[in-house]
Amino acid sequence: MITPNKFFVTLLLVAPCLGGSALAAESEAAVVVELTQVPCQFLESEQGSNHGYRSSSIKDCEAINAKSGASRIEQAEALQLKPGKTIFRVTNKNVPYELGFWLRGEGIAGRVTLPSVSGGGLITGKTQDYVIDLKPGEYIYSCPLNPTPNYKLVVN
């Protein structure tokens, strides 16, 4: 089980000096989960192990994941988070094309009622935040532009 402290997780609070009370600041707390993308994988999702994959296009990652994706997912540990406001801070580290991030409820499309968040625009070296109010349940996250395995997230 991967708990938030195995990832880079911090809490952000609304400053009381901005017109909010300490209690309001506490209720506005958000967990920040930092994730780093390298070619064909998220580093933190695979215990920080950079497999050294090289990719100049989506097709490279599709071929790599066809060979190793299933075994890497078997070894990956699910990220465990509590319900509430969560910021996924995703960085493109040395992938030479635009990336994105996609978090969604695990299951069959149309039958999942969990919230989701997605977006692109992650050029090489860029970090971007994806904000979501997580509800209890099981999710998966990946990058469809830098095809990664579907990593698991459990919220309880």
From TrEMBL:
Keywords on record: Signal
Residues in the signal sequence: 1-24
Lineage top rank: taxon: Bacteria
Protein name: EfeO-type cupredoxin-like domain-containing protein
Organism per entry: Candidatus Accumulibacter meliphilus
